Amino acid sequence: MGLLLLLTCSLLSSCSVVHAQRKFTIRSVELFIEPHVNVTRGTNVTVRCRALVSSLDQEPLSREYVIYKDNKNVYTKTSITPEDLLYPLPHARVANTGNYRCGITIEGKRIKSEDKKLTVTGLSKPVLRLNNTEVTEGDEVTAKCEAPGETGSIFFSFYEGSKVITESGVNGNQLEAQLPLSSTGTHTLHCTYVVFIMQDLFKSEESDAVHVTVREFTSTPVLEIYPLSDVYEGDRLNLLCTIRNPLLDSKSGYLYLSQGMTMLTAGVSAVNYTVVAKSHVPAEFECRFEMGRIEKVTTKQIAVTELFSVPKLTISPAEVFQGDNITLTCRSEIYVPGRINNRDLIYSLSSFREGFTKMSPGVFSGRTLPYEFNYTCAAQARGVLKESQILTVLPKVSVSAPEISVLGLPVVGRTFQILCHSAVGSLPISYTLLKNGVPLKPFRVTLPWQKATFPVSISSPQEINSYRCQAKNRNEVEQHSNSLNATVIVPLTKPTLFTHPNLTQTYLYEGNELLLICEVTGSPPVTYQWYRGGRRLTSASNLSSVGYHFQRLSKEDGGSYHCEAGNEASVVRSEALTVEVYTAIWKQALIVGACVLLPAALVLGCVLYFKSKRGKREAAAELSVKPSGPKSDVSLTLTRSTEVSNAATAGLDGAVVSVWTERPPDAGDDDVSNVVPPDPDVEYTEVVHPHSMDPARVPLRKGTDTVYSELKNAPHGAADHHDYGSLEYAGLNGEQPEVGHCSPEVNGYHDLPEPVD
After folding, report:
1. Which tens digit of pLDDT belongs to each residue from 671-710?
2. Is residue 703 in a domain?
3. Does residue 497 form part of some domain?
4. What mean pLDDT value characterizes the chain?
5. pLDDT digit string (tens) for 266-298?
């Protein structure tokens, strides 16, 4: 009883396995060699195996791939995915040359691809190594020849010059051999190798011909479609795939019904299927019969007329901003009036229905989102549903109030750039520069990296506050910036160089203090440079915040000075100012004293010398004159002249003239002093004029000059008055002076005046 139950279960299990067998077909298997079937050594090669399989079930099929090289299995892999099998050959060598084939096995069904030959050309250069480069005669040299990177069966040859020494083949990429060298001297050795690829090196002769006859399989599958013509979308198509051959066993083959690459159904002797016709789905149907290695295929293609066109979704207005009200319209432009009418079409929004209200068939009203969104709509009629293309709505962002600024430093009188920029706003944005509210220049920004710049020039710092920016990216909505506020640089005026103290009102002497002041008008900060005679002054001790300061001047500080002033806008230079430093007053006084006192001392010495000598002469010239009669008030003036003495001596010649000579003094006259002149060259002459002459002036001559002597008489009525006449001291020029009444005595004497030149 137990044995019967076990046998029953086994039979049931076998039946269930048979009925659980999945329906599939292997359409084709192809092998590809990438990048090419002919490559050079070192190329990365990929052998790709591609299998096209159709299955009725949704469960994946287990696929067993095999890669063959020269009919030898070189790679096997099992996969459940439909992706291609890749067999990589990195850095291909000559040994990879051969015929490749791909095979796939699914649940016992196996198909192989056609062979493709890969040819790799190019061998690496052999390397020869010796154990010793210097040996004794009769010794052997151990040589090793290598084929870097090569694989397979390789035949090596060793040469001395062109003579082969030894050859051998190995299944590797190097060979070591003992090389006998018979003669003395220098031997040149090298090696080569050959890689054996049997298909390329050896080829057999053709065999005897054997004739084989192959007959065609007469049964073919039959595909029936109803209706076959005048088919519209939504029509139901009845498909029938059969094969009629009473000689065949119904269990020996399978029928597969497909639409395009999609398998619809499968069966043994006949299969049928009903499908809804669609214009966008390929209407090519296939009935395939497979039995062993036999494949028979019948295909049919029908034309499906479009019932209505794919709906088109549009938006109004075309340009929208965040939060704007919009209208979405879904419409099918074409439909078949005899089959449907406009009321049969049902429109709907396929995405983001919230927030939209259906105003009429295919018309929806709502508000834009603050971000980008994709909208689609669908049209449906008689079981046919069509969706529109995606409509991407990117609401624009209203432009924000622009910011106004300057590029660089604005300088009065120079052109600079004003920048207008809004932090938020969709492109394009139109910017306009306003001056005192009047539009000047427009600028349209269409690219993200563009900047709205406006070249302007101002004549005063206050003028910069009159500029503003206006920005807009939608009609009738404008945004304005604040007034431009920026630091304006005023170029420096030409410096004025003046001093303290003022050089036009005072002189500078050594030791005085002087301050050079460079005065300019312009924007701070201002830097100053001082120059003397073209050379820059770098003394930090003299520099001050107001100028160049000399605490104690010296003669070396004199010269031509000028200053340079600079700010961020300009560098200007003053006119030159000449500073003259005079010698200190005490030095001048010392020099003047030295220059004056020395000559004065010399002059004083000379004066004292001549004065002392003159004193002696004047003392000798004093004469003692005494009248013979009583004393009178007549005064006598004496004049010294060498020329008179000489003239008197030459002109008298024995005439009666009263000439003063030494006379013995009267013994009884005590009032008269006798003077003896020490100088023998000086002579004195007494001239007595009669009273008939001019009592006031008496002409005297010295050479050709007339000299007047002064005659003084005593007052009239004086006691003891005698008419002695007048006494005159005259120079003689060869004429005899007039002689008057002379009194032998004179009552007094006077100094004679010096001769008049």
Report:
1. 433 334 444 444 444 444 444 444 444 444 434 343 343 3
2. no
3. yes
4. 77
5. 988 889 999 988 887 777 899 998 877 678 899
Task: Specify whether 232 is located in the same domain as 289.
Answer: yes
Q: Would 456 be classed as within a structural domain?
A: yes
Does residue 467 share a domain with residue 505? no
pLDDT for the residue numbered 248? 56
Cβ atoms within 10 Å, residue 433: 24
Cβ neighbours of 729 (radius 10 Å): 25
Burial class (CB in 10 A: 0-12, 13-18, 19+), 561: buried
- Expressed as residue numbers, the domain containing 453 is 402-480
Q: What single-letter amino acid sits at 491?
A: P
Q: What is the pTM of this model?
A: 0.41
Say whether pLDDT at 749 is over 50: no
> What is the total count of domains within the chain?
6
- For residue 44, give the CATH number of its domain: 2.60.40.10
Check if the beta carbon of residue 196 is closer than 8 Å to that of residue 169.
yes
Residue at a domain's end among 79, 99, 121: 121
Given a contact cutoff of 8 angstroms between Cβ atoms, the answer to whether 442 and 436 are in contact is no
The three-point CA angle 70-75-79 to 5° equals 135
Residue 307 DSSP symbol: S
Residues 324 and 344 in one domain: yes
pLDDT band at 594 (very low <50, low <70, confident <90, very high): confident
User: Is the same domain home to 409 and 447?
Assistant: yes
Half-sphere exposure of 412 (CA within 13 A, CB side): 16
Percent of the chain surpassing pLDDT 90: 28
- Does the pLDDT value for residue 720 go beyond 80? no
Higher pLDDT, 4 or 454: 454
Token code pair at residue 294: 């036999």
Q: Is the pLDDT confidence value at 366 over 50?
A: yes
pLDDT exceeds cutoff 80 at 552: yes
The β-bridge relationship of strands 38-40 and 116-121 is parallel
Sorted by sequence, the CB contacts under 8 Å of residue 755 that are 6+ apart come out as 639, 640, 641, 702, 707, 731
187 shares its domain with 249:
no
Parallel/antiparallel/unpaired status of strands 477-480 and 467-474: antiparallel
Omega into 501 within 30° of 0, i.e. cis?
Answer: yes
pLDDT at 202 over 70: no
Structure confidence at residue 94 (pLDDT)? 87
At a CB cut-off of 8 Å and minimum separation 6, what does 9 contact? none
Measure the CA angle with vertex 649, ends 647 and 653; round to 5°.
Answer: 115
3 state DSSP class of 432: strand
pLDDT in tens, 246-263: 455 545 778 999 998 889
The verdict on residue 355 lying in a domain is yes
Q: What is the pLDDT of residue 636?
A: 35
> Which sign does the torsion angle of CA 616, 618, 619, 620 carry?
positive
| C-alpha span between 76 and 32 (Å, rounded) | 17
Is pLDDT at 49 greater than 60 in this prediction? yes
Nearest to 727 by CA among 689, 753, 756: 689
Pairwise CA distance, residues 647 & 643, whole Å: 6
Q: Please give the DSSP secondary-structure letter assigned to residue 543.
A: B
Same domain for 106 and 28: yes
Give yes or no: residues 387 and 411 share one domain: no
Q: Give one DSSP letter per residue of 548-582, joined into a string.
A: EEESS--GGG-EEEEEEEE-SS-EEEPPPEEE-EE
Kindly report the number of other CB atoms within 10 A of residue 538's CB atom: 9
Helices (H) and strands (E) in the chain, counts: 4, 54
**Domain boundary, last residue among 302, 329, 353:** 302
Report d(CA 59, CA 339) in Å as an integer: 40
Contact 554, 514 (CB under 8 A): no
Comparing CA positions, the residue from 33, 63, 36 lying closest to residue 48 is: 33
Both 109 and 28 in a single domain? Answer: yes
Pair of tokens at residue 204 = 């057999």
Higher pLDDT, 26 or 544: 26
